[in-house]
């Protein structure tokens, strides 16, 4: 039995932040009903690369979910949502603040309807504060949270991390919030509202950024592949044009690193025994490591570092990931069979639980694939369901 078996979740999210949180719960047994608009469904269905008209990403983000397609602008659809939420444990939404209220689905009213309901609200800037009504996407949140300023080579334009990291961080904070609220509900029997802002989920991961400024007026700057204030840690060019990331910043690790590159003078230098001393001479250390690395190809550099237990690794592309035996051994990559009989590699379920692991149980649904069964499960007759569909309140593809 999976750890969230019998947990009933209604997802009213779209794109990334809300749906990723719901996907995480579904992977571990939660029954997730995803509510989508008629005909077009969640916009993520058309993002990135499409196979047979639907995004491949969709198979990751919406696996293990059921799709109920409703026109939430209509009062009857809103009534259906209320009926579902009377028996639900969790509601997840990531609309702009005020959207739920505009549909008459104010979380406070929903809690009156179902006092045990836990409501996760993810938005760009949160449900309060002067920016609450501004539209916010993850890319903007990453900038406001302080991350974008640091993701650059010194003196060059700050760049994206390359994925929607702001959305994903908010999702994971949201899942933590749901699990905390569920644990507290065991004591009180009451639900509550969780308010997550995209920017603050990023900010929460910014380590010592703020206290350094508060204590010293220090404004951390972009440092490329280095890790400011921790040395030596950087990416070093090898003779074959590849880069190896080397983290020699532990005191004993540093000594082993200097020995393997033939710099015993640095290994035994008392000024370099601790990190603060090494930071003062980081340029010298980077030069020494870089001169050694560029004489060897990537494989030989990694073999030498592995032999003395210095943390190091190549920079993986998806080709490296797909062919790496460790990924396969850990079931980080799983193959699923698509409706057309083809197979598709997708990320496995994380985290790994020893006794009650999660699993991929069903493919991502088509728009409104489960509309009929869900509506009938709340007491509607076949003729009532047909009427709702005829009038555009509900939809099945």
Automatic annotation (TrEMBL):
Which protein are we looking at? Formyl-CoA transferase
Say which domain of life the source belongs to. Answer: Bacteria
Q: Name the SUPFAM superfamilies for this protein.
A: CoA-transferase family III (CaiB/BaiF) (SSF89796)
State the UniProt keywords alphabetically: Transferase
Organism in which the protein naturally occurs: Polynucleobacter asymbioticus (strain DSM 18221 / CIP 109841 / QLW-P1DMWA-1)
InterPro entries with a match to the protein in the record: CoA-transferase_III_domain (IPR050483), CoA-Trfase_fam_III (IPR003673), CoA-Trfase_III_dom3_sf (IPR044855), CoA-Trfase_III_dom_1_sf (IPR023606)
Q: EC number(s) of the enzyme?
A: 2.8.3.16
Q: Which GO terms describe its molecular function?
A: formyl-CoA transferase activity
């Amino acid at each position: 039995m999976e750890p969230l078996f019998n947990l009933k979740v209604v997802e009213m999210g779209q794109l990334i932040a809300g749906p990723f949180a719901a996907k995480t719960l579904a992977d571990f047994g939660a029954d997730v009903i995803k509510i989508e608009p008629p005909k077009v469904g969640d916009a993520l269905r058309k993002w990135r690369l499409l196979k047979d008209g639907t995004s491949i990403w969709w198979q990751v983000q919406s696996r293990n979910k059921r799709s109920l397609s409703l026109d939430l602008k209509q009062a009857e659809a809103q009534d259906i949502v209320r009926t579902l939420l009377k028996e639900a444990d969790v509601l997840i939404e990531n609309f702009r603040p005020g959207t739920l209220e505009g549909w008459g689905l104010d979380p406070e009213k929903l809690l009156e309807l179902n006092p045990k309901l836990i409501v996760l609200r993810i938005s760009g800037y949160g449900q309060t504060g002067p920016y609450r009504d501004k539209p916010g996407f993850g890319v903007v949140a990453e900038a406001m949270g302080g991350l974008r300023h640091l993701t650059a080579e010194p003196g060059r334009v700050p760049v994206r991390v390359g994925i929607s990291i702001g959305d994903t961080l908010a999702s994971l904070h949201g899942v933590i919030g749901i699990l905390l609220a569920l644990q507290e509900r065991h004591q009180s029997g009451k639900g509550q509202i969780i308010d997550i802002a995209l920017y603050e989920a990023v900010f929460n991961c910014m380590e010592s950024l703020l206290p350094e400024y508060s204590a010293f007026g220090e404004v951390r700057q972009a440092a490329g592949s280095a890790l400011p204030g921790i040395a030596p840690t950087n990416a070093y060019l090898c003779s074959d044009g590849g880069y190896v990331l080397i983290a020699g910043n532990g005191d004993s690790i540093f000594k082993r690193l200097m020995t393997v590159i033939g710099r015993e003078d640095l290994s035994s230098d008392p000024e370099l025994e601790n990190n603060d001393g090494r930071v003062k001479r980081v340029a010298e250390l980077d030069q020494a490591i870089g001169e050694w690395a560029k004489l060897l190809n990537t494989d030989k550099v990694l073999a030498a570092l592995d032999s003395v237990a210095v943390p190091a690794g190549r920079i993986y592309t998806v080709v490296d990931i797909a062919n790496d035996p460790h990924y396969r051994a850990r079931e980080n990559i799983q193959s699923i069979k698509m409706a057309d009989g083809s197979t598709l590699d997708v990320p496995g379920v994380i985290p790994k639980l020893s006794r009650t692991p999660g699993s991929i149980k069903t493919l991502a649904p088509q728009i409104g694939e489960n509309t009929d069964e869900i509506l009938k499960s709340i007491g509607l007759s076949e003729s009532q369901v047909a009427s709702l569909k005829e009038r555009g309140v509900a939809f099945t593809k």
